[in-house]
Amino acid sequence: MENHSIISLQEALDIAFGHAKSLKTESVNYMKSTGSVLAEPVYSDVNMPPFNKSAMDGYACKKNDLGNDLDVLEVIPAGKSPSFKIEAGQCSKIMTGAEVPEGADTVFMVEHSEEVALNKVRFTGTKTNSNICTIGEDVKTGDLVLDGGTLIRPQHIAMFAAVGCTNPKVYRKPKVGILSTGSELVEPDTQPQTSQIRNSNGHQMTAQAEQCKCLVNYYGVVKDDKQATFQAIKKATDENDVTLISGGVSVGDFDFVPDVIEQLGFDILFSKLTVKPGKHTTFALKDNKYIIGLPGNPVSSYIQFEIFVKPFLYRLMNYSLPAPSLPLPLASDFKRRKTDREEFVPVALNANNEVERIEYHGSAHIHAYHQAFGYMNIPIGIGKITKGEIVYVRPL
Fold this sequence. Notes:
Layout: H1 9-19, E1 25-27, E2 37-38, E3 42-43, E4 53-54, E5 58-61, E6 69-76, E7 90-94, E8 106-109, E9 113-117, E10 120-123, E11 132-133, E12 144-146, H2 154-163, E13 169-171, E14 175-181, E15 185-186, E16 197-198, H3 201-211, E17 215-222, H4 226-239, E18 242-246, H5 257-263, E19 267-270, E20 275-276, E21 282-286, E22 289-294, H6 298-316, E23 326-329, E24 334-335, E25 342-349, E26 355-357, E27 374-378, E28 384-385, E29 390-395
Parallel strand pairs: 6-7, 14-17, 14-18, 15-16, 18-22, 20-25
Antiparallel strand pairs: 1-13, 2-13, 3-12, 4-11, 5-7, 5-8, 6-10, 9-10, 19-21, 21-22, 23-29, 24-28, 25-26, 25-27, 27-29
């Protein structure tokens, strides 16, 4: 049953998150796992480093022998095991990353050495650290290296490789179907005729969903026809976990989307938010399928994707997406007439790291965001903010 009341963004997120069921898990090749969420912890099967390792090019010796003439036994490159144990009065030349020979407790730098005779060197410095990375000082065998729930980034790929986790178990990425409604829309490769505009929303949302590493199916433009809208949404919901629809969710004579959603057996949990832009945002579900209807104006759909759709998609992967908000001073006074909605306003930063408003003509003004650093959040009830006051900005 549709909730006809208007609710806040936080209430909408709470409702959506409360109905989000985590997708199934699967094992994937670690090189294909970036952007996925780890479903189980990963433990190390090795010590790191796996042996006492030289931190620099130098000479491995006993600390007590620093300052004495030392016989050079061998040269130890990285990847080769030492052949000799270090005794008093001896050393081995060693390369960065090589295994430190038994008996040595110090490596002094090549720059602090002097060759005093053939195969004989002396430490010329005044003091030195040990310059040895000891076995297991970073990670020990059996240590937890990545916890379940980690959003996998490139630095985690290095950890998978280091511990031999080549097929981590992750939550499946959502399949997202995207379609745009409106008889006025044509695709970007078409020259618009009178009363037509190019479809930017669908491609913008596709890029946003792909940035979230979702598996995206784009269904194109659907004309303002109830049967065509029914067939398109049915196909999208049959083939995807989440269907994103731009346009057709308002109250116009040709806004068929809400009726079609209910005809398909979906429950509409809310359809209006106290947010600007993006008041007419719809969330519906049936079993483990979800429909999110976004406004037809490109700035509205862009903002609603960032503040609502994106965190919901990550919640399906059992991940709580952080929403960083930077406190920054406002460069000039801000005023608005209506204060009944939470508003997101495109902004840039000036040379003094102050927040400056970008010229913005409303939710159809897609060009306003091209140079934006982010968007500042204006809470409900706030009509004026004076220069120098702190505002909160979400970076793009």
